[in-house]
């Protein structure tokens, strides 16, 4: 059995990265479908778009998950804050349309 060349190894790694990126996009799409439903529910019940106590619990949970996964917890928190900002914007938009 011959060893892979550096170019072959790079191609395999990049293929794995491409597959992971595709999975992440699909998971984010599913997440946003769920949060859209949350936004409708909040708007129908005149609930605020943001829930700071839930967000704080989620940050703690995600930081712990990141540490367990050997991912920088700061990065996980930045990612979460980016996503939540988008979700809150969607929720505010849904509420304003009602």
Automatic annotation (TrEMBL):
InterPro entries: Chorismate_II_sf (IPR036263), Chorismate_mutase-related (IPR051331), CM_bact (IPR010951), CM_dom_sf (IPR036979), CM_II_prokaryot (IPR002701). Coiled coil: none annotated. Its EC number is 5.4.99.5. Pfam families: CM_2. Residues 4-95 form the Chorismate mutase domain. It is an enzyme of class 5 (isomerase). It comes from the Bacteria. GO terms for molecular function: chorismate mutase activity. Keywords: Isomerase. PANTHER family: CHORISMATE MUTASE. This is Chorismate mutase.
């Amino acid at each position: 059995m011959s060893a892979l060349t550096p170019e072959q190894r790079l191609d395999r790694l990049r293929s794995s990265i491409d597959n992971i990126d595709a999975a992440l996009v699909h998971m984010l799409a599913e997440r946003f479908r769920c949060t859209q439903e949350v936004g409708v529910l909040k708007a129908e019940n005149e609930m605020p778009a943001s829930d700071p106590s839930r967000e704080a619990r989620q940050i703690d949970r995600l930081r712990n998950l990141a540490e367990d996964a050997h991912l920088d917890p700061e990065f996980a928190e930045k990612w979460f804050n980016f996503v939540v900002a988008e979700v809150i914007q969607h929720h505010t938009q849904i509420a304003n349309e009602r």
